[in-house]
Amino acid sequence: MEFTKGHGTGNDFVILPDPDGALDLTPGLVAALCDRRRGIGADGVLRVVRSAKHPEGAALAGEAEWFMDYWNSDGSAAEMCGNGARVFVRYLIDTDLATVTDEGLPVATRAGVVRALVDGDTISVEMRRPRLYDTSTATLGGLTLAGTAVDVGNPHLVCALPAGLDLPALDLTRAPEFDPVVFPAGVNVEFTAPGGPVDGTDGHVLMRVYERGSAETLSCGTGTCAVAAVALRDAHRDTGVVAVDVPGGRVTVTVTADSCWLAGPAVLVATGRLDPANLHV
Predict the structure, then answer these.
(1) Run of H or E including 211
(2) Cβ(245)–Cβ(203) below 8 Å
(3) Tens digits of per-residue pLDDT, 168-218?
(4) Which of 9, 15, 49 is nearest to 34 (CA)?
(5) Where is the binding site for substrate, in residues?
(6) Which domains does the chain have, with CATH numbers?
(7) Of 159, 220, 225, 260, which is the active-site residue?
(8) Out of 81, 159, 225, 260, which one is annotated catalytic?
(9) SS3 26
(10) Known catalytic membership, residue 81
(11) pTM of the model
């Protein structure tokens, strides 16, 4: 089995080329690939498959040739991954499977078709505009924090830390508790603190995230979009540009009247071959 390893601001993925959908990708195989001791190690798996060859992408084949089949590290499939989409596009370009036109490169996902643009090392992906739709809480140990529920094609709960709480000191070794009535399919939970002014932006936020199905990660693309939307709302703005710093680096989120652009680096770091028989499935 051929593979490539890539990341976007530290959010890392095993990329599996499978253009004709021939690979028997199971939850156990995904979890084994993502195992950081016995496998390659990653926050998730990106299978590169033609939309027409995947049952969940076939309906979108007329809009996008390639389908991003994204799986979390625990073997569960997910609707969307912003950093994953940017790394997916980097792979398509670097392997000559696709080119980016002035209109952008469309990619099919379980959350619909997204569009990507490339400017040197920076890849920007246009996704749906985040929808703020409810309030809820997250609990870490004995600490309960109020948050805003946000839909970015997948579910998020954005919790701003009150004054006096240190973002780096949060213990995210265990999953935050949340309300299963509000989030019946689980949720990605973002914890935020304000950052200093950044030129060319309308806001700056520091963020850590516990991702559904992957635990704490160094970055979450859709999570940064959710955080940016909440920051703009709190600043009484409908649109704008927000710099979001995650443990893996910085991304820039631009919320427009009808969409959201996530921009940042996407890097491929290794290619190779593995024998699935040697994985601990």
Answers:
(1) strand 203-211
(2) no
(3) 999 999 999 999 999 999 999 999 999 999 999 999 999 999 999 999 999
(4) 15
(5) 11, 72, 82-83, 154, 188, 211-212, 221-222
(6) 2-127+266-278 (3.10.310.10), 131-257 (3.10.310.10)
(7) 220
(8) 81
(9) coil
(10) yes
(11) 0.94
